[in-house]
Amino acid sequence: MGKIISKKGIFFTFVAITIMTVIALVFAPPLDTALLKDAQPLHTRITSIDNYINDLQEAYFETVLRATTHKAILSLIFYMNTTGFYLKDLDSTFRDVMMNGTIKHPPGSLTHVRIDDITGKKIMENNTLLNWTSKITNVAFDTLNINASINITNISVIQTKPWNIDSSIRINFTVKSDAARWEKAAVITTTISVEGFHDPYYLVNTNGKYTNIIKKSTVAFDKWNISLVREHLRNGTYVHWQASDAPSFLMRFNNSMDNSSCCGIESLVNPNLITPSDQRESYLDYMFWSHVYNDVQNCTKLYNITTPSTGTGLWDEFNYFKMDINHVTMYNITSKDAVRNC
Amino acid sequence: MLLKKRGYFFVLDAVLGLFVLIIGVFLVTSYYIEVPQPVQVGLLSDDLLSFLSNTKIKDLNNPYAGIGGQLWQQGIITDTENSLLQQIGEFYSTNKLDTAEKFVQNVSVEVIPSQFRYEIWINTVLIYPKNPAPEHVNSKESTEVMLTSKKITFGMVNKTTSKVWGPYKAEVYVWER
Question: Where are the domains of chain B?
Answer without folding.
Answer: 36-176
